[in-house]
Amino acid sequence: MMRILLFLTTNVAVLIVISIVFRLLGIDSLLLESGGIDMSALLIMAAIIGFSGSLISLFLSKTMAKRGMGVHVIEQPSNRLEQWLMETVARQAEQAGIGMPEVGIFESPDPNAFATGWNRNDALVAVSTGLLHHMREDEVEAVIGHEISHVANGDMVTLALIQGVVNTFVVFLSRIVGHVVDRVILKNEQGYGVGYFVASIVAELMLSVLATMIVMWFSRYREYRADAGGASLTSRRQMAGALRALQRVHEPQDLPSGEFAAFGVSGRIGGGFMALFRSHPPLEKRIAALEQSS
């Protein structure tokens, strides 16, 4: 779950910064036309703001991952384990028809892994020290297959595009709410007052929560595809065995930070309402899906 949190955090931060800049430059005010809103101009502005955040996050994803997670990228293998890791990634990347990703290891007691990068031929696959210490080689191989499948499926780009679309509607609808509050409720007839800015910011934050639910739904959906891809690169037995190994350590901790969480192999958030914010389906459901497809 680590990668999605960083991705979403960066998106929200960029969204807020660009929104503030547009307001300071008076671009928001230019949308005011004869007391109404120029919907086309507003939608264009919303798209610029919305897609800026997701695309910036996408192109910076590898850099953020390396720094945020303290990933040690393997340039030259220094031991047998690193050599095996590099060879496994290289073999599966060739099977999946993608360029050789960078391979890294990050310190974490929890067994986890993630893949990130702006395209399928310029990716990073990283595994935790906990994964290497707690799981057998055949299980680690399946986890790597899962991550390679994320890359081959283009999940990073798809997630960025979906995030851009929902960001666009968050900005668009929040400005509509701000306009209604300012003009209809507060009866402001000249320019935009404080009510517009406060209402649009509050609406933006609330709508961002709903947008996150949509992004997390997609993240859960593509986990099943990545499991199937991992099974095709190794075997269903290995992939199911890797998921059961994760169960043995009681559903590992979420990766810290939005974008990473989405492309990790596991994730843990509570049930009920909070389940809507899970980046990964429960492990038992993923195992069941693998077994049913055999």
Please characterize this protein's 3D structure.
This protein has 294 residues and is of the alpha+beta class. It folds into two domains: 20-59 and 155-249 and 271-292, no CATH class; 62-151, Metalloproteases ("zincins"), catalytic domain (Zincin-like), CATH 3.30.2010. It has twelve helices and six strands. The protein has helices spanning 3-24, 27-30, 39-59, 61-69, 80-96, 129-134, 137-152, 155-185, 194-233, 236-248, 258-262, 283-292; strands at residues 32-33, 36-37, 72-73, 102-106, 113-117, 123-128. The strands form two sheets. Strands 3-4-6-5 form a four-stranded mixed sheet, sandwiched between helices. Strands 1-2 form a two-stranded antiparallel ribbon. Helix 1 (3-24) crosses helix 3 (39-59), helix 7 packs across helix 10 (236-248) and helix 10 (236-248) packs antiparallel against helix 12. The chain is elongated. The two termini are 27 Å apart. Mean pLDDT is 83; it is low at 257-263.
If helices are DSSP runs of H or I spanning 4 or more residues, what is the number of helices? 12
Strand tally is 6
Main beta sheet: 4 strands, mixed
Class based on secondary structure composition and strand pairing: alpha+beta
- Nearest-integer average pLDDT: 83
List SSEs in N-to-C order: HHEEHHEHEEEHHHHHHH
Biggest sheet strand order reads: 3-4-6-5
What's the end-to-end separation, in Å? Answer: 27 Å
Global shape: elongated
Give start-end ranges of low-pLDDT stretches. 257-263
Radius of gyration: 21 Å
Beta fraction of the residues? 5-15%
Number of domains: 2
Helix content range of the residues, please? Answer: 55-70%
